[in-house]
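Before a colleague's protein record goes any further, I have to sign it off. What it holds is a sequence and that sequence's fold in token form. Would you go through it and say whether the fold makes sense for this chain? The record follows directly below this note.
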Amino acid sequence: MDYPNDQAPGAPVRSGIPEHGRIPKYYAVKAHVSLLIDELSEGDTLPTERDLALRHEVSRETVRQALRELLLEGRLRRQGRGTVVAGPKLEQPLSLASYTEGVRRQGRRPGRHLIGLDRFPCPEALAAEIEVERGEPVWHMERVLLADDERVGLESTYVAVARVPHLDTGFDPDSSFYAYLHEELSLSFGDADERIETVLATPREALLIGTPPALPMLLLHRLSRETGGRPLERVRTLFRGDRFSFRTHLGHQREN
């Protein structure tokens, strides 16, 4: 198999072109627009659908299909009636670092917008996860995640009221929950279990994040424990699939 001399690590092999060389028209347009994006800067406006259709001698619907894929991949974004080049995806580490730390590391300004903070009796399934009695009061805090004021995710945090009794009065919902637990309550995280899957947002979630319902989302489930091993919080976070990627470091584990 022939590989281009400039084949980038992680790129589709042979740029995704089948061995027989026949590719759909929309994919050829997408490849050309991708090269154009590489030459532009974040926020630069793309040529109109009409201009791209004339340039590549295809229908406007073919151009739309190519642009739809680039929008879903996060390389483009809509701005007003036009389409502009999107910035790089936010890279979130798969670690016990908070969302705040991950976003700041990339030179972006993290933020959160509180949707609701409710107290309710713990249902059986959640009680089993965070090791409290069924019916014991728990907090549910729901917040939209922001990066430079752009809505990029939606986070639900569940924690026992007994562990964090003054969450409704002593915590600034625009700030880091992890920092509050550590600095105000002297609670430190020891380890966590995480699971990631691809989902579509519900109509309500899409409205809160400000995305089309058809946009793929990365759903992260996390159960965090403090240093003594006792469960502390259960988190469900939706991240925009076009604006986020995840990174982790893998080490060699010896077999017994």
About this structure: Residues 65 and 183 are 50 Å apart (CA to CA). The longest helix spans residues 25-39. The chain has a mean pLDDT of 84. Strands lie at 76-79, 82-85, 90-93, 110-121, 137-147, 150-160, 189-200, 216-226, 231-240, 244-247.
